[in-house]
Amino acid sequence: MRICAQCRSAVGPDWRFCRYCGAPLNIASAPASPTAREMEEEPETQLLESRETAPAYLPPESGPEAQPPRRRFRLLALVLIGALALGTLGSAGLFLWHEVARYWNPARLPARQGAEFSRRLALPFGSEVTLMNTNGNVTVTTWAEEEAAIVARKRGGVDRDLADVRIEVTREGNALSIQTLHPEGSDAAVDYALTLPRRVNLSNMRIVNGRVHIRDIEGVVRVQVVNGRIEAEGIAGAVEAETVNGRIEVALTRCASDRDTTLRSVNGRISVTLPETCDARLEAETLRGEIEADDELGLTLSEGRFTGRRAEGQLGHGEATIRLSALNGTIRIRRSQE
C-alpha cells in the first residue's frame, strides 16, 4: 500500500499526484512496508478510503476532449452572434436595394458629356444671346445665316471632371442661353467658339477667367470679365464692356445713336477706334494713366484737381455718350483711317 507523505492518506499504485492534497508522488520508489503503528491505524485508513468521493485535485488530462466546457460555450456563442449579424446586414441590404430600385429613375440623371460639344440650331435675326462661363476663352464670329453654331472644348482637370462639366443650351423664342455648369471643386475650363447671325444682340456675356474676342456684330454687345481682356472689332452698335484685370480694345464701325457706350477697366488700358462719322459725346477719365487722342477729334484734355486726367468733347450732333473709364491704365482714342 502506498501512503502520501504529505497527508498520510492511502493512494493508488498508479497515481502521480495525491488526489486529496495534490502533493506529487514518487512512482519509482518501492512502496514502504507498513510499520506496526501504521498497521494499527489501518482501519482508520480504510475509513478514509471509503470517503473517497470528491478528490481535492486531479492531474490535467491531454487531448482534444480535455477542452474546458466554458471555452466551447464562448466559441459557440461567437458563431451564433456572427450568423445573426450577417443575417441582419443581408436583410438591410435587400431592403435598401428594393427602395433604390423603386425610386431610382435613370432619366433624372444628367447625361455625361465628352470633351467636345457642338450644336446647331435656328436663331432669327435680332435675337438675344447670353453666355455664362467660369473658366475659358470665348470667340464670337457672325455670318448671314439665321442659325447659330456652338462649339465648346473642355480642357484641364482629369477625364472624369471633364465629363461632369455640363454645357446647357436653351432657346425660348428669340432668346438663346448658353451656360457652363461645373461640379463643386472642378477646375476645368471650357473654350467656346460661337457663330451667330450678324444682326444679333449679345445681351449678357459673363466670364470669370478668360479672354473674349468678338467680330462683326450689328447690335448691342454687353460683356463682363473678371480676369482677361476684351477685344471687339467691327461692331455696329453700342458696347458695354467691363473688366477688372485686363485691357479693353474696341473698334466701332458705327456709333449707336440711341444707346450709350461704356468701357470700364480697373487694371488695364482702354483703346477705342471710332468710325469717320460718329455722332456722340465722348467723355474719358483715368486716375493713374495717360489719355492719348487724335487731334482731329477736337477733344479737350485737362488735369484732375488732385490726380488723374480727363478728356471730353462733342463728336457730331448725336445725343448718345461714349464713356471711357480706367483706374490704372492709359486711354487711347483713335479715328479709323478706312
Structural description of this entry:
- This protein has 338 residues and is an alpha/beta fold.
- The chain has 3 domains: 2-50, no CATH class; 113-199, no CATH class; 211-338, no CATH class.
- 16% of the residues lie in helices and 44% in strands.
- The protein has 4 helices and 23 strands.
- It has helices spanning 36-40, 42-50, 69-103, 159-164, and strands at residues 2-3, 10-11, 116-122, 128-135, 138-143, 147-155, 166-172, 175-181, 189-197, 201-209, 212-217, 221-227, 230-236, 239-245, 248-254, 261-267, 270-274, 280-288, 291-293, 300-303, 309-315, 321-328, 331-335.
- The strands form 3 sheets. Strands 7-8-4-10-12-14-16-22-18-21-20 form an 11-stranded mixed beta sheet. A 10-stranded mixed beta sheet has the order 3-6-9-5-11-13-15-17-23-19, with no helix packed on it.
- The longest helix is centred in the N-terminal third of the chain and has 35 residues, at 69-103.
- The N and C termini lie far apart (140 Å).
